[in-house]
Structure formats: structure tokens, C-alpha cells
Amino acid sequence: MSRVCQITGKRARVGNNVSHANNKTKRRFYPNLQKKRFYIPEEDKWITLKVSTSAIRTINKNGISAVLKKAREKGNILV
User: Fold this and answer.
1) Taking the domain 13-74, which CATH number applies?
2) Residue 5: C-alpha distances to residues 9, 14, 39, 77 (Å)
């Protein structure tokens, strides 16, 4: 599976390792993704999502139902 957050759509970015001598080599910055299960009371079921830690904070703040609805409108959600 790709390293993409299913809620926010965050994905790996490209940048440089910069040495003390200012040599630059390509590297990737990966999002902090966690595999997490969420309970949806409206559908009475559990779903497993691969989400970034910032998305987990958003879910804790706004609730899973509201976040899923917004993600479906945006087109990020795969469930």
C-alpha cells in the first residue's frame, strides 16, 4: 500500500540531505502514518484507516463521522 493518508491525502515529499560540506543528495520526507481502527456508530461498524497523526487529532476534535463526510466530498477517502 502507498504511503498516503486516507483522510488528508498527505503523501511523501522530496527534498535533499545536506551535509556539513553542503553536498546535496535526494531523500524523501514521509508523513507520520498510523494504521488505526475507528468505530462508526451510525453504521454500527469498525473501519481501519491509514491516517497521519494530524488526521487523528482532527478526528479527535471533530468526530469520525464529520471527518469522513468531508473526506468523501474531497475525494480522498478509499472506504
Assistant:
1) 2.30.170.40
2) 5, 17, 18, 9
Tell me the pLDDT of the chain (79 aa) as tens digits. Answer: 689 999 999 999 999 999 999 999 999 999 999 999 999 999 999 999 999 999 999 999 999 999 999 988 887 766 5
Grid coordinates representing 27 are 531523500
Report pTM.
0.82
C-alpha cell at position 3 = 504511503
Domain boundaries, the chain: 13-74
Tell me the C-alpha distance between 74 and 51, whole Å.
Answer: 15
